[in-house]
Amino acid sequence: MADFIVSMAKRDQMVQELQIMKSVRRKEVAEALSVARAHGDLRENAEYDAAKQEQALLEARIGEMEDKLSRVRLLEDTHITGEHVSIGCIVTVKDLKTKQQEIYTLVGEEEADIKVGKISIRTPIAKGMMGKKTGDIVEINVPAGVLKYEILKIDVAH
Questions:
Q1: Phi-psi region of 81 (alpha: psi -120 to 50; beta: other; left: phi over 0)
Q2: What's the CA gap between 133 and 60, in Å, rounded?
Q3: How many whole angstroms separate alpha carbon 139 and alpha carbon 125?
Q4: Strand-by-strand arrangement of the 145-156 sheet
Q5: Per-residue confidence (pLDDT) for residue 8, from 0 to 100
Q6: How far does CA 91 lie from the centroid of its chain?
Q7: I need a surface site. Which of 10, 76, 86, 153 has the fewest CB within 10 A?
Q8: Are 11 and 74 within 8 A, CB to CB?
């Protein structure tokens, strides 16, 4: 499996989420199982079945998070200069068709959230901008056609 590139903040968030699942959520699920078990016959106990299913889902999520954390590679800010587009950069572009400005922050897959302008480095838009410099014109093939952007500004995200 591939490594995940994440910022220190995202890694810390993942560690905190894992700790909550292990300490708080496990206790809550164990308590729900205990209450359901106290209702008697487990063969016809929907509450018990639901609690067991919730426990299985929680344990699967914990395993998934532990796996991801074991493969995390931290994004090292010292390697990001802002001279060219790379992961960890905030890129301001002008769509040459619509004349609209857009701002994208290039991040690893785990941090991508298009609603706040964070796009994965694996997206066609990010791939098309990688390595480019301020003033460059890029043509990016996307499923909806071809985007033509001018790179106006490259900043280092913190």
A1: alpha
A2: 43
A3: 9
A4: 118-120, 101-107, 89-95, 145-156, 137-142
A5: 78
A6: 18
A7: 76
A8: yes
134, 154 Cβ separation under 8 angstroms: yes
77-156: CATH number: 3.10.50.30
Average the pLDDT over 70-79 and give the result: 72
- Angle between helix 8-20 and helix 46-70 axes, rounded to 10 deg: 150
- Kindly tell me if the per-residue pLDDT of 1 is higher than 70: no
Tell me the domain boundaries of the chain. 4-74, 77-156
Residue type, 147: L
Neighbouring-strand partners of residue 122 = none
Residue 125 to residue 91: CA distance in whole angstroms: 11
- Domain 4-74 top-level CATH class: mainly alpha
